[in-house]
Amino acid sequence: MDTNAVRDRLLKRRDELRQRASDASAEARHEADPLSADFAEQVTQRENDDVLGAISHSAQAELQQVESALRRLASGRYSTCSGCGEDIEPERLAAVPYTDRCRSCAESGAQRGARI
Ligand SMILES: [Zn+2]
């Protein structure tokens, strides 16, 4: 496995996610767009804030997974499944570069309600 290519890919993804999370939270704080004086308009803005909050939240969650993948990469455990200790399938890592579970652990985790 080309760990340098994987690291580059994860670092690029980390930057994108950081940017997305900070854009969404800046917008939700109305740094460039103060709350309207009009009540109906405020309702729309607050609904939009909820959407932005969800975007920011999901970006943060993925960011944590990417950072943990980078730590596993640095410690040489990147392709080791945290569920069963076997190697994670290379094609699975290519599809989901921040996963820490092999396909069968991910599938049994999904049945328990885990996200990945
Ligand atoms: Zn496993």
Give the topology.
Elements: H1 3-28, H2 39-74, H3 90-95, H4 103-111
Helix pairs in contact: 1-2
The protein binds zinc ion (ZN).
Zinc ion (ZN) binds at residues 81, 83-84, 86, 101-102, 104-105.
General form? elongated
Determine the number of helices (DSSP H or I, runs of at least 4 residues): 4
Small-molecule binders: zinc ion
Strand count, sense and barrel status of the largest sheet are: none
**pLDDT < 50 stretches:** none
How far apart, in Å, are the first and last alpha carbons? 22 Å
Q: What's the alpha carbon Rg, rounded to whole Å?
A: 18 Å
- Percentage of residues assigned to helices: 55-70%
What's the rounded overall pLDDT mean?
A: 90
Which assembly state applies to the chains in this document? single chain
The helix-strand sequence is HHHH
Structural class: mainly alpha
